[in-house]
Amino acid sequence: MLAYASPFMEILCRDDESAALLQFKESFVILNQSRSHDPSAYPKVSSWTLEGDNRDCCLWDGVECDEDTGHVIGLDLSSGRLFGSLAPDSSLFHLVHLQRLNLAYNHFNYSQIPSQVSNLSRLADLNLSASMFSGQIPSQISQLSHLSSLDLSDNYDLYSGKQLMKLKSGLISLVGNLTRLQRLHLNYVNISSVVPRFLANMSSLTSIHLQYCGLQGNIPVGIFKLPNLKVLDVAYNEGLTGYLSDQFTRSSPLEVLNLAFTSFLGEIPTSIGNLGSLNTLDLRSCNFSGSIPSSLGNLTSLIYLEISNNSFVGKIPSSIGNLIQLSVLDLSINQLIGRIPFGLGNLTQLSYLSLLSNLLTGEIPFPLMNLTKLTSLELGNNNLQGRIPDSIFNLKNLKHLDLGRNNFSGSVEFGKFVKLKYLTTLRLSNNQLSVLTEDASANASLPKFQFLGLSLCNLNKFPDFLKNQDRLVCLDLSNNNIHGMVPEWIWDTSKLSLKLLCLSKNFLTSLGQHPMPLPWTRLVGLDLRSNLLQGSLPIPPATISHYYMSKNSLTGNISELICILTSIRVLDLANNNLSGSLPRCRQNFGASFVVIDLERNKFQGSIPQTWTQGTELRIINFRHNRFQGQLPRSLAKCTVLEVADFSNNKLHDIFPSWLENLPNLKVLNLRSNNFHGQIGASKAGYKFPNLRVIDLSHNDFNGKLPLETFGNWKQQPREFANSDILSYIQVNSSVVPQRYLCNSWLYDYNYTMTMTNKGIAVFYEKVHELLKAIDISSNRFGGEIPESIENLRGLHLLNLSNDVLTGHIPPSLANLTELESLDLSENNFSGEIPQQLTQLNFLGFFNVSNNLLTGPIPQGEQFGTFENNSYEGNSRLCGRPLSKDCADSNASPAPPSISVDQTQESESPFQFGWEIVAVGYAFGLVVGVTIGHIVLTRKHDWFMKQLAR
């Protein structure tokens, strides 16, 4: 029944529905403009009233009525500034004739979508995107069988299926009955589901948006063949895999194909050239391989082509030059070779071109200089050569120019960059260039740079033009020939914007009269490594997170001001002459540490608890100082700690058994301190669950061997012991993941160590994750080696030398089949050397010298490579390589005799040392990899010990 406002005006809206709309309005608060995230939003329901001439709800803003029946069939309150919960008894669900409902871009206060939405059984279009809904999507939505469009995108706390049970059927249960569906938009909704096969049969689908949905498993290849599909966007689902269809046809209407950041693999099929309507192809960061098909050149409607960060090989097809509508072309981070095709000069609509991080060669082709619409040109990290053409200054719209890490040569007059007035990013680092800055010194018209990389550019002083730069975010002047003192004006350069400053690997001697702390209010990264800096340690501002000051000549104490650095994550002060005690900072200091390296200074006193308390701390390296007292017990809170190195100090403590529950601890190095006492086996069984390397050598431990304390190290499959697939113990300490960072800040902190290997103290510049080593030599451990030593199956290096061990060498050592170095020298072992040890096929070093061993030396296999030094000091041993023959007729036959020259060489302790290092490079698969240089030989220590006896 129709209502009338006056004899002259017919009211179409029904009373019950206008009442329902008004009741709906009253259930919400209207946000003011300042609280709305959408600047175009306005309160649509403000026009809803029964007063005056506005009583017909069919005339209200956002309301659509059926002209014949007067029923409300459409409600569009998108960006309407609504705030509040959508209640299950909301009057909205009385509007049962609704066909279109759009509540997008409001704030429903993290309420759930009510199951009563199923009352709106005639809905064809439901849009609840970006409206702050949360909780589980009601299964009743699947009952809306008329739906042709479903958009729940950008509700980040919304999920499908019973989340706690991690069901894989979320998408199946949601859309399984929606056979009329054309548009399925669920970006950022937690589906955590496989893509159901029936989706490939929903022929009415025109667009699928499923970004960031937690999709898993294989996507049905039939989806690519849907006859009406224009948009397929499943980006940012890392668990989603599949292959591109090799049967794309010319009839396909596909316009957008976005598979970025998924696990798709295989090659791009040649048939992709049939997708004549395709305007966007985004395959970033997948696992694609093979060559780029030349058929891509058929896609003349393409505007956006992004296939970066894959494993594409071969040359860039010249046919890409046919894509004259391209605005974005990104082929970066692949393995492309050859020259840059001249045909790319045809792409005059390009605004973004990135060929970054490939293997491209040759010169920059001159047709690229015709691309005057370019705002970004990235050619860095290739093998390009030749001179940088002056015509590059014709690209007057450039904002970002990256030519770093190539083989460009010649000189560049920096003053010419005045022509590129929009330029904010310039990277010329790591070429063979000489950047001439004299012509730019007084030029105030240069662009205002934000990112400026001039590493390895033959600079011999700080460029004067930097005085006028007040917007720098990153400045990299590392690897140059800049000598002397830092100019005073540097402290006023970009004080309010600078975040990263890289001055490492120069010849700087002084920072002059610098402020304390340094004046940059936003600085997060400061790199002054490898200079000649003297004086006291400068203190960066409180914003700092990464501070590198190693390999300088700094002296004196650390200022108490360092305690303001409450956000610092990496502190590297190694290899200086700093001294005194560490400041006693409050609890909020050190909580953010990831890496702290104070190696090779002269610090003394006890280690403050606050320096070793970080719950994110992964590597702590305090070796080669003069620290005293106990290990700080706060280390027990460092649950992600991987490396604890306190070697070569004066610490006086018992063994830190309180570290045994740290789940990630890989390296424990307490070498050369004053640790003492016995190490008892844990009553609860094996502890130190992830320990790989332990060095307790040169202390004063006693009692029985503590081998059982260090766990049951399982054998690593030999096929994994390959240097191509092994990783190192390191921390990626890049400051922020930003594309235009100074290259110096893409920096991995590698843990280094010194350990006795094959009789020599060897410096490891990198430590493989698979290395498993125990060195408990030069203590006072006694008793016998227990048979349980066979549990250490994955061990590569075992050093029990220079203790007071007794008994026989157990045959069970033969079960340590990964063993590459075994040192049992300078003990009181007796009996024979077990013949079973010849089964150790990877043993490259063996030393049992200066014991009480008797009988024949085992023969054959690796034992044919060990020389006299391995056995000297055992007067009752016999057999090769010793000159003493065994009287026993059952002794093993001797191998071929060794020449006089070889014997003489083996008797030189220094020559022996160098030979072992050569073996380290060539022999061991794990122990011998990435050995640095010799630090010292053990021969001298042994000789001095003999004199003292």
TrEMBL record:
Natural source organism: Juglans regia
Lineage: Eukaryota, Viridiplantae, Streptophyta, Embryophyta, Tracheophyta
GO cellular component: plasma membrane
Key word Transferase present: no
Main location per the UniProt record: membrane
Matching Gene3D superfamilies: Ribonuclease Inhibitor (3.80.10.10)
Superkingdom per UniProt: Eukaryota
Protein's cellular compartments: Cell membrane
Keyword RNA-binding applies: no
UniProt keyword terms in alphabetical order: Cell membrane, Glycoprotein, Leucine-rich repeat, Membrane, Receptor, Repeat, Signal, Transmembrane, Transmembrane helix
Gene name of this polypeptide: LOC109006885
Annotated protein name in UniProt: Receptor-like protein 6
Membrane protein topology class: Single-pass type I membrane protein
Region (Disordered): 882-903
Residue span(s) of domain Disease resistance R13L4/SHOC-2-like LRR: 227-332
Family that this chain belongs to: Belongs to the RLP family.
PANTHER family linked to this entry: DISEASE RESISTANCE LIKE PROTEIN, LEUCINE-RICH REPEAT RECEPTOR PROTEIN KINASE EMS1-LIKE-RELATED
Residue spans crossing the bilayer: 912-936
Residues annotated as domain Leucine-rich repeat-containing N-terminal plant-type: 15-66
